[in-house]
Each structure stands twice: as structure tokens, then as C-alpha cells.
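thought: fold this chain, then report.
action: predict
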Amino acid sequence: MKENREECGDHLSSATIFAPTTGAKFAKAFRTKGVWLVNALRVEVVRQKVVEAVHIVHAVALDSDRQLHAVFGDASLMTYWRSTAKPLQAMAVVITGAADAFGLTEKELAIACGSHAGSADHIAVVRQMLAKGCLTETHLQCAPHEPYDADERHRLIREGKSPTALHSNCSGKHAAMLLTAKHLGAPLETYRDPNHPVQRLIAEGLVKATDDPALTDTVVADGCGAPIWASPLLKIALAFHRFVTGALGEPAQRLTAAMAAHPEMVSGKGHWNTRLIEATEGRFIGKGGAEGLFAGAFRDGRAIAVKVQDGNPRAIPIVVTALLTHLQWLTEEEQNRLADYLEPPLKNLHGEIVGVFRVRFPP
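observation:
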């Protein structure tokens, strides 16, 4: 990429990006095409001391003052936000006054930010959101898929039923978009169109959060059909810094508080994304997305953005936990709560330990 996308607001310049972790001597080489690979993180799948597979991971970390604290791999790597954008997309329902007009609860705001598991509880929350706007699941334009929640999935099988749009992990986001559209008096049928007032408002918010006007040129349909945009990894970290610290205003503060209060709505009970928020007792707020993306920030502004190059999501819980531990940003108690993600065992179908997942940091 030729654009000067390395800068993070006014505080960072291309000269400061690599110095904190690589040293001046390596900084010049690091900018050379392909050399970033040397500095990337590696999640290795080790079976009987043989490295069977490797996931290359790019990661950036900002300190509480927005200064670049660490970089591994390519900080300017362009990637689509996917579901990592949901907390910022949900800002529209608060900014427009729709959340107050329809009396949305903290739990409902949290699920608007989340990728839920399609449990009975999740479905009930989304259905309640829609009902507050005199809407039903027929208004949702997110395609159905099998729920991730085992109890709900088994119930559907027992009863011979198919999943509905409510089971989509994105139904909370779509419900918030519909309520925003209704509050604005905008068409409901076209709420997924990038030129719809709701989507234009969301895009404007992402531009503000990332300082990246070029973001709007990248719009494409996400897996659920709603618009999504792409940004450099460094800009995604910056956006979460601003979101979690409240630099984006009271709407971001409300959504952050909602995610902290109801982490089970952000993903699902026992899921890593939920467990990370629970382990830090809401001190850290983050959100994962498809194709191996994760970003989040502590309340004091320290932020990370992580991208698995091959898109494999299995590497995300392992590498994010290892990264936060490496940076010494987790307390000892928080590390203990997440210990099963630090070099977790590799098991076969008999439950026997046959190897390990490990994270390699560059020297």
C-alpha cells in the first residue's frame, strides 16, 4: 500500500512505528517488502515435537496515550472489519436516540454489539428488541444458520425445525439497525443498502473512529449481508482505543458499559470472547470477527488489534491471550482465569493429549 496509512491520529508518524519493538537498526529493513514476516507472531501446532502447522499473526498494541507500544508483522495490513466492527456499528442506535426511544436495556445494547451463539436466551433478547419497535423476525435480513449453542441446536433437531434469522449470530446487530431505521423514518426494506441513512451514519462513525476517509471506498457485503468496510490493522486498534475510553462520546461509553455488564451477550457462555471480558471484569472490552480478526482495549486506552493471516479462528484465543500476557497487561489473577488458553494441549478424538499449541514471539 502506498498511502500513508501507518499514522495513528496526530501522535504517530511512519518514523515511530517500528522503533518501540525493533530498534533503529532493524526499522529500515522492517519497511522492506516481505521483511515484516520475520517480525510476525507464529502460532505453532506441535505434535510430538514436530511443528505440523503454523499460523502467521500480525498484531499491534497502543499504549494509553495512543502511542504505538508494540508491533508484530505488518501494522498497515488492510483487512475487513467483519464482526469486529459490531460495537462501532451499534453506535448508530444510540446516537440517533433510537435506543432511548424504544427503551433498549443494557442487555439489548450488548447483543447489538455481539456475535451471539443463538441460545434460547439470545433469541429471546433479540425478539424483545424487535417487539419494542413493533417488528418481528420477518423484518430481519440476516440469513439463518445453525445456532452455535448446542442446547438450541439439539432442540431444533428434536423438533424437526429449521433455524430462523433470529439464530443468526448477527441478528442483534440487524435488530439495532432496523430500530434505528424506524426511528429515523427511513425505509426498513433497504436497511442493508450502503446508501441507506443508517449505513451512511455507521460509515461516518467508522471514518471518525479511524481517521480514515478512504474507508468508505472499501464497502462490500459482509457474511450476513450488511455492509462492512476495511481498514489497516493500526487504525482498527485506534478505533477501539477511542471506543472504550469514551473518546467517541457518550454512546460509546454506554455500549462499553453494556458489554462489560453482559459479556454473555457479546458471544456466549463459555466462549473465549465472553470469557476474556469476564476474566478482566470488564476492564478489557474486545470483539472478534471472521477470518481471524480481533481487537479490543482496556478502559485506560491500551489497545490491540490482531489478524491471523490465513484467517483461521482457532489461533485467536491462543495468540491474544499470549500477547496480553507478553505485554504484561493482564494481572496474575486474570492470567490464571485464562490459563487454559496459554499453550493449550492438542487432543485427538479420544481426548488424549498428542501435542500443544504454542506462540512464538520474534527475538
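thought: worth noting. Confidence is low (pLDDT under 50) at residues 1-36.
final: C-alpha cells above.
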